[in-house]
Amino acid sequence: MLSNTSNRAVRHSVRVAHNALRHSSRLSFFQQKQLPMNTIVRFVPQQQAWIVERMGKFNRILDPGLAVLIPFLDKIQYVQSLKETAVEVGSQSAITSDNVTLEMDGILYIRVYDAYKASYGVEDAEYAITQLAQTTMRSEIGQMTLDHVLRERQSLNTNITTAINEAAKDWGVTCLRYEIRDIHPPRTVLDAMHKQVSAERTKRAEILESEGKRQEQINRAEGESEAIRMRAQATADGIRFVAEAINNTKGGADAVSLSVAEKYVDAFGKLAKESNTVVVPAQLSDMGGFIASGMGIYNQVTKQGLKGKAEKEATDKAAADREAAKVAEHA
């Protein structure tokens, strides 16, 4: 009879425990609103830690699985969740080192790693760590400029996480990461930033345009230089060809003299027709002497050209002889 009564009591305790777990809700990110009932037999869910007090004093921490309590003496005082939890950090204002007021909010990812410290080390861990995150954020932003805040968001998140973990060591809670969600500068600052971006883009466009014009001018100048060089080369080749033809042809010098005389007379005749003022050369009475002096200048230029050509050939021949002598010595 007593055995049946005990069995019914145990089964009733188990049913009550299951119903209590099913209808319990959470007080914060790791505590429940309603604590489990203090029955003899309890089942601790996975990733939870139950703090048991005996006669008002800490007794033990119940791990997941079956647990047996002593009625009237043992009491489940705290229930801690060991899962990673996201806590929203509300919007707040912060002033940068260059005196710009920002509105910022974020999300804090935390986890309880010591159920005892989380229960007895702080009154409300969620509130405490949220306030710590806000004060730490204001402190970190106060050391940075606006451009640095916008550019180094990841570095700011890391600094805030490190500062929170350093201050919350005695709370049994660790901050896994902190993420800044939104950054809202003042409207005037936003307008100035937009103008700056627009001016920067305009500047880059003007620089690219000027570089294009500069390259165009360089290309045109190089083209003109190449054209002048090619024309000069063609003229030099023509003169060289004519000179060689005159020197290598019998009677070439006489033919040149005749051609010069004809062009001289023709040019003087045109000058007399087209102008009222006629320039009379000093040697007009001695046409033969004038032509002879012109041919003398031509012969002098031709001799200098031949002399230069002979000197170049002699220099090339001497260099070839020296090279042949070196080859012979090595052989």
Automatic annotation (TrEMBL):
Record Gene3D superfamilies: Band 7 domain (3.30.479.30)
Taxonomic superkingdom: Eukaryota
CDD domains associated with the record: SPFH_paraslipin
Annotated Gene Ontology cellular component terms: membrane; mitochondrion
Pfam families: Band_7, Band_7_C
Chain residue ranges for the region called Disordered: 309-331
First and last residue of the signal peptide: none
BP-aspect Gene Ontology terms: mitochondrion organization
UniProt keywords, alphabetically: Mitochondrion
SUPFAM superfamilies reported for this sequence: Band 7/SPFH domain
Residue span, Band domain: 39-197
PANTHER family per the UniProt record, alphabetical: STOMATIN-LIKE PROTEIN 2, MITOCHONDRIAL (PTHR43327)
Family: Belongs to the band 7/mec-2 family.
Protein name in the entry: Band 7 domain-containing protein
